[in-house]
Design goal:
The protein is about 15% helix and about 20% strand. With about 400 residues, the protein is α/β, with parallel strands linked by helices. About 10% of the residues have low confidence.
Length: about 400
């Protein structure tokens, strides 16, 4: 019953399907009866993801009955009773499922989140994590870390909670957490963390959010160290959506190290002034040929690439760039970018954005399909010369 969005109720007779092994019930407004899971003891695969507008009723003890369960997906699902709440399911029951190797989960209380990140097993088997509506987030916890702290860092303080050990996580959504203030990104050499496996990152409706990243490491002057760094950070990140996150995010420069990024959507971030800052942070160099020894690689990279001029890796895989309702955005990047895979640029309500990082060498692989925006915005754009303007004018589509 995957994607049967109009299905709202499941009959109680579902509990009579005693031989059932595979059950997929993705439906927006799904309501499940109490006690429905207890008799489905042969279930191996259970997908109840994306049921945000329903009410999944899982009572204490039901999960214990699913000893054969290998895959459970409750990502972006609404439980009638939250994890660890009285009358609701227990994370300890999940830990007791010995065959469980794939977990998608929605966390809606800080107490449940703290219990969850203290479980080594649950962190390892979680592929999708949906954190939302944490209205009980304590004032004493101000930061959420996506990576382990550096030895000399203050990130190990009790004011921080970390997701760094979720080394199999593919998709992370954080939304509607009004008291959450800070997302921290740092790097520890030769260690696999959430940052190396994450593919999709969605951050929505966090009004006081700051994103703090380890600029000291990024300013490492030795290119071979920088190359090692960029190979370990955001290796698989492909899609990033940051929406309605207030005035404290000025740029998202940390995304220059997501060299596989395909989609970037930024919307209603009222403090955003630049997408990528040129404030002394150089993009990572492309890797030298692998047959060359490491010491020679460092020399080759130093000789061929400079901090100021190498921009070929920034957004080198990007296909879709969406910029919407960003009243203070002035720049995507101050230098032209190659955009070898770019298909779409969508700009809406960005009145201060008067220049695109394009020149005659940009998007020249015949991948570009459109540059979409309002006609008055397009007519106010500034170009280095008429050749560049005439190159991209055929791709403009009025909204």
């Amino acid at each position: 019953m995957k994607y049967c969005w109009k299905v709202e109720k499941i009959p109680t007779s579902i509990s009579s399907l005693l031989e059932l092994e595979y059950l997929n019930l993705q439906a927006d407004s799904l309501v499940m009866p109490p006690g429905w899971l207890k008799s489905l003891v042969k279930l191996k695969y259970l997908d109840l993801s994306r049921t945000l507008y329903g009410a999944i009723n899982i009572t204490p003890g039901e999960i214990n009955c699913l000893s054969k369960l290998q895959m459970l997906d409750l990502f972006a699902s609404r439980l009638k009773k939250n994890w660890e709440d009285e009358g609701g399911p227990s994370l300890e029951e999940l830990e007791g499922l010995k065959k469980l190797n794939y977990l998608g989960i929605s966390i809606a209380t800080f107490h449940a989140l703290k219990t969850f990140v203290s479980s080594h097993k649950l962190q390892l088997c979680t592929r999708r994590l949906f954190i939302s509506d944490l209205k009980d987030w304590p004032d004493s916890i101000t930061s959420l870390a996506l990576s382990p702290s550096l030895p000399s860092s203050s990130d190990s303080s009790p004011s921080l909670i970390s997701l760094a050990n979720m080394i199999n996580l593919k998709e992370l959504t954080i939304r509607d957490c009004p008291t959450f203030e800070e997302l921290r990104i740092s790097w520890v050499a030769k260690k696999i963390t959430l940052l190396t496996t994450l593919e999709i990152l969605i951050i929505e409706r966090i009004p006081n959010l700051k994103i703090v990243w380890d600029k000291i490491v990024l300013q490492q002057p030795h290119h071979h160290h920088r190359h090692q760094f960029c190979c370990c950070l955001f290796t698989n990140l492909q899609h990033v959506y940051i929406v309605n996150c207030g005035a404290l995010i000025k740029d998202v420069t940390w995304l220059i190290y997501a060299q596989g990024l395909k989609t970037l959507h930024l919307e209603r971030i009222y403090g955003l002034e630049e997408v990528i800052s040129d404030d002394g942070f150089a993009p990572p160099p492309p890797p030298p040929p692998p047959q060359i020894p490491m010491q020679q690689q460092a020399l080759l990279v130093d000789e061929k690439y400079s901090y100021s001029s190498n921009t070929c890796t920034i957004f080198s895989s990007l296909k879709i760039l969406g910029l919407c309702d960003l009243p203070n955005l002035k720049s995507i990047y101050v230098h032209p970018l190659a955009f070898p895979c770019l298909e779409e640029i969508i700009v809406d309500d960005c009145p201060k954005l008067k220049k695109l990082p394009l020149d005659t060498n940009s998007a020249n692989n015949n991948t570009l399909k459109k540059i979409e925006g309002k006609t008055e915005w397009w007519e106010r754009l500034e170009w280095e010369d008429e050749t560049i303007k005439s190159t991209f004018a055929p791709y403009f589509r009025a909204r």
